[in-house]
Amino acid sequence: MLNWLSKYSADAIVLRQADKTWGKEAILQTVSALVASLRSRLEPYAPVGILGDNHPEWLMIDWACQEAGVALIPLPTFFTPSQWVHTIRQSGMTSLFVQDPQHAKALGFVFPITAPSQSYHLFEASQVLKDQIQKPDLLGIQKVTFTSGTTAEPKGVCLSAEQQWAVAQSLEQQLRTLGIERHLTLLPLSVLLENIAGAYTAALSTASNVVPALQEVGLLGASQFNPELCLNAIEKYQAQSVILLPQMLQALLAVLKKNDPRLASLRFMAVGGAKVPEALLHAAQEMGLPIFEGYGLSECCSVVTLNLPQASRIGSIGQALPHHQLTLATDGEILVKATAPLRYLGQAEQDHEWIATGDLGHQDADGYWYISGRKKNVLITSFGRNVSPEWPESILLGSHCFAQAMVLGDGQPYLSAILLPYPGIDGNSIEKALEQVNAQLPDYAQIRAYCIAREPFTLSNGLATANGRPKRAAILQSYATQIQALYTQDLNTSQLNLVGENS
Q1: What is the pLDDT of residues 444-460, one digit of tens each?
Q2: Radius of gyration (C-alpha) of the chain in whole angstroms
Q3: pTM
Q4: Structural domain containing residue 441
């Protein structure tokens, strides 16, 4: 029996896609054959990449790399070609698993290797590409997860197999009483949150891991989501647990009716990746959804805190998982105790006791943690008041009028916002919504002016990260003219909308 499977998974481990099922025996056979293919490469211990849609074979490749002692480098399908090239050159991968051989050829992987899979094919790099690839020391590293973050060049976080399974073990322990039998994969497996909190956690329990193609569950392209397809998939597979991003939850609520029968099977819906507006969570609960917010970061191998059915508090990000410890720095930044030395690809290990999250927050008397905003995003008005923009943004998004919002005003006398209203929301509705939003904020944090976004902030136009967080520097640059108008006194400027002054 393979070491990884005997050590970590349940005897009843099952992977599914459509009408095909892989039980433990089939998984073992496929993983064993994949290990043989990895070891037949010219450089059998060199890192290997994977680029393609969700499929059970994606996970079997992941687990084969653990057995073979090879680092796996997931290439997210939502990255741009230039980000793929950067990732390939930085990571040292000399071979690549792909679903489309043309993708391999275009990226410089031209020599096919026999691989025992029907969906994925393995190719080795040309000598020209090998000459361009760096050779980082990845001893003890099983996965390098690259995040798009807020810059053009992705940053690689190096993780061991032990770190990944430790998170999954904590989650399985916390969710065990729910008796979840089917987890439906909604996010790309290249996203660490789904890879660990979804697939690995299901592998530790008796749950089947249902892994359809992303289009079947409503993820279309880099940033499009069809909530009806998602609801239909949940009903089709009778999913009992799913993981969502906040914008996916928002889209689902826009089409749901209370106690929609398509969601009757669900026992646990985790939402994370970005701050979730409180009003959105309340609306989800009113719809009968078993929704629970969590928090994590790649540097800590995904999930750090989580709300649970037996311990939930809306507005919080939950309590720490059993294997994690959190504390606060003197400036209010949340720190997570390192379970292993932190390492970014191409950098030396950072053997610090505490990992700085970059998030400001606090803990209440019952152990629930709260996020107030990003440390680097804090706005300081010309009156010296500090405001985390995520605070008013969360209230704006909870008003059910705006699909997206970015608050700004650093060094200015008041705050303003770039708003993307939902279709059909007119000027009067915007004004009323902003009056209600401002009634919940102190005067220094109220929105005094706004402009309407030309288009959604998306990954494809460079104005959002893959999990929907606005790329603030890029938005400020793209809307420089409109922002300048927000801080002038020319009321005839077409870009200027003062709250309380319909235009």
Answers
A1: 899 999 999 999 999 88
A2: 23
A3: 0.83
A4: 378-498
